[in-house]
Amino acid sequence: MxxxxxxxxxxxxxxxxxxxxAEMILANTYHLHLQPGEDIVxxxxxLHKFMHWSQPILTDSGGFQVFSLSEIRxxxxxGVLFKSPxxxxxxNLTPEKSIQIQNQLGxxxxxxxxxxxxYPSTLETIRQASDRTTRWLERCLKAHxxxxxxxxxxxxxxxxxxxxxxxxxxxxxxxxxxxxAIGGVSVGEPPELIAKIVQAITPLLPANKPRYxxxxxxxxxxxxxxxxxxxxxxxxxxxxxxxxxxxxxxxERWNIKNAQYKRDFTPLDPTCPCYTCTNxxxxxxxxxxxxxxxxxxxxxxxxxxxxxxRFTQRMRQAIIADRFMEEFGDLIKE
Length: 334
Fold this sequence. Notes:
- The protein is α/β, with parallel strands linked by helices.
- Helix content is 46%, strand content 14%.
- The model has no long low-confidence stretch (mean pLDDT 95).
């Protein structure tokens, strides 16, 4: 799922996203609350109309952004008091407020408000954050006013402590939610620990409900997670890398700004059907990126998004054909 934090996937239009075969995108509660405000989005008819995107949208609760981007004054069972990075005024974000904002934004999938502890943290800190996340989930469910058209997912927390993660997963499953997410990964811990967590926790979540690994988007991470039973991913990787000139292609990553591509008139990937690869050369993209032209960011984003979506399509087809381990086993073992 491409990430459109502020109701836009950076440098890419909704039509271009559809052409990339994106089926679902993300937006973020925290950022949209700060600008333009959920009341304006609701007045516009909800996120779908506001950003002209007719397919599913998922909104993150804002929990991760509060803990990673804000100057926090206090964290309690009531919620999080923090200073707005835009104008400095104090904001009290509670589970009820997070759900109210998401109800007004009108996404198809919304996330429960959670406490995302940093890495590294002590066992006691992680346990407190995980327990609070479960208590907050109860309040989120009570505050949720649109269960008929918005699926509320819970988020498994627990840091790198498997026993805390397992307890969190078992507690969440008792709520019989429409879907479940594994959060609090990709916050600085080593990749091998992420893989260990995902392999241990995913099987504890219902196989007949969507299982969503938050903030993951590299080839290896996605393959390992799919092997464990994960269904959904989001990550800023394809567009963020594009703005730095990095190309994702056939399992590899390289920099189109390098001098070797200045006279390379072949496409980025001859096998890729995206608009960029069927119309432009590496030399042209090299020129755009070196010139800091916005079109270069757009064209590279189109390709990178298409590449990762095609990669997940390949995994789906391999599962259906019962060839997953044969085609992707090497990445799992790395």
